[in-house]
Amino acid sequence: MEVKLAKKYGFCFGVKRAIDIAEKNKHATTFGPLIHNAKEIERLQRDFDVNLSESLSQAQKFQSVIVRTHGITKSDLQTLQNQKIHIVDATCPFVTKPQNIVEKMSNEGYQIVIFGDSNHPEVMGVASYGEDVLIVGNVEELEHVKFKKKVALVSQTTKQPKLFGEIAAFLASRVNECRVFNTICNATFDNQSAVDALSREVDVMIVVGGKNSSNTKQLLKIAQKYCKDSYLVEDEKELQEEWFANKNLCGVTAGASTPDWIIQNVVAKIEQI
């Protein structure tokens, strides 16, 4: 059986930047998981003593706090600043962008629509910068909404462009003025396009990444459209030999929070099988 990697996969710019920031700030804590990959978070804690605070009250006990790649809410950031805590901002610039857009458009009287998962930390952070904010996961959720005359649309960085376009078209037909800001990350789009192409030609597809990672779950969803034998694993220990029985070509991709060392271990184990 041959193993073929997607043309684009793994660490994006924002994650690489955050990891570099964390490694340079030993003994600090991250407010929330720095990235959605438990194995990499364990490595940072083990090798660099970078702790993990799951709540604001936990983070306040540290002298230095690293803001995760997904960002935090405006009020939580303000609380940390008021306490004179040393803040190291590892928020991905692609996440800071919709935060700034939502704040600006909200101040100008626009109703804000965010295409995203309402319980995702990135979306919660972006939403906190606006006043009148609606978070939706699909076009159907907009059917019975009463909109203001002016609406501004942004997206969670890891969403599919096609679905974002559908929501933009729907809003444009319903309101007097619709400002559309494409805040989907280029790396996300490249990874999704690559898995779309690869999953059409393979017999089995392995997606490597955190189970709680939004962009990784999107990759799996795309892969399953064209390759029914598509599986999500966090590391090589989760691979099952029966997945590869009678298969000729295995495709491998990885989420934006998946480090190279995990991907290499997965590929090595597949080749061993």
Report a brief summary of the structure.
The chain is an alpha/beta fold and 273 residues long. It contains 10 helices and 12 strands.
Protein traits:
273 residues, 4-stranded parallel sheet, single chain, Cobalt-precorrin-4 Transmethylase, domain 1, Rossmann fold, alpha/beta, 3 domains
Please provide a written account of the structure.
By secondary structure, the chain is an alpha/beta fold. The protein has 10 helices and 12 strands. The protein folds into 3 domains: 2-9 and 187-272, Cobalt-precorrin-4 Transmethylase, domain 1 (3-Layer(aba) Sandwich), CATH 3.40.1010.20; 13-91, Rossmann fold; 94-184, Cobalt-precorrin-4 Transmethylase, domain 1, CATH 3.40.1010.20. The longest helix has 15 residues, at 93-107. The protein is flat and about 60 Å long. The mean pLDDT is 95.
SSE topology:
Blueprint lengths: L1 E4 L7 H11 L5 E3 L6 H11 L2 E3 L2 H4 L4 E4 L6 H9 L3 E4 L3 H15 L3 E5 L5 H7 L5 E4 L13 E6 L5 H12 L4 E4 L5 H14 L4 E5 L5 H13 L3 E4 L15 E6 L5 H13 L1
Can you give the mean pLDDT? Answer: 95
Strand order of the largest sheet: 1-12-10-11
* CATH homology superfamily name of the largest domain: 4-hydroxy-3-methylbut-2-enyl diphosphate reductase, catalytic domain
| Termini gap | 9 Å
CATH architecture of the largest domain: 3-Layer(aba) Sandwich
Helix/strand order: EHEHEHEHEHEHEEHEHEHEEH
Strand content: 15-25%
User: Would you report the number of β strands?
Assistant: 12
Helical content stands at 25-40%
CATH overall fold name of the largest domain:
Cobalt-precorrin-4 Transmethylase, domain 1
Q: What characteristic shape results from the CA principal axes?
A: flat
Number of helices: 10
Please, what is the oligomeric state?
single chain
What Rg do the Cα atoms give?
20 Å
**Main sheet, how many strands, which sense, barrel?**
4 strands, parallel
Number of domains: 3
